[in-house]
Amino acid sequence: MNEDYGANIVVLTDDDGVDHEFEHLDTIEIEGKLYMAFVPAGIPDDSDEPVELTLLRADKDENGDEI
Question: Whole-model pTM?
Fold first, then answer.
C-alpha cells in the first residue's frame, strides 16, 4: 500500500496482466467473509464526476494466501 494520494492505494492486476491503482475505502465482514470497497486512485475529493465503486471479497487460496 502507498500513501501518495493520502489514502491506502493498492495495485490490482486484471486477467490480462494490466495493473490498476485503487483507493481502498473500507473493509467489512459479513457472515464470516471479508468484503473490500475500492474506487479508482487519484480522483480529487472535490470532483463532481460519478465514481465507480468496486466491491471485492477477500478469500484464501489453497496455500493460505489472500486472494
Answer: 0.73
